[in-house]
Amino acid sequence: MKFYVLLLLFLTSCTPSSNLEGPFRVIDVIDGDTLKLNTSEKVRLSGINTPEKKECHYQESKDQLTKLVLMKEVYLEEDYTNKGKYGRLLRYIHTKNQDINKHLVLNGYAKVYDKYAYDTKKYKELKKLEHKARLQNIGVWACKETTQQKL
Q: 123 CB contacts (<8 Å, ≥6 apart)?
């Protein structure tokens, strides 16, 4: 009997968490923090902000998100607010092995979106990762000060 209980616990720990939606296939990456699913829904990665076109590190951020999710299955985790002001879903993106939002922040591809701290359930966790990237002066943190202020 103990064997079956352990087996059940093991199997449930290997499947995506019940609070995740999906899987969905990413069919397009619009920029470093926005993607499109096979359902035609656009998703804005919650709690983070990446450079806009013509800003320092824009292409690197977009390329990294593309590498991580394009034409792959992802799972979505809701934040406090379901949709943003442009009608996009606000979500944390997960692959089988990775939290994409956290990866982008930790590796300097994104900053934490401080403007929406009150509405971001993973805000404190993301800020800790951002601090590490900032100390290493990588990615967006290596950009010149004038470009950083635009984010």
A: 47, 112, 117
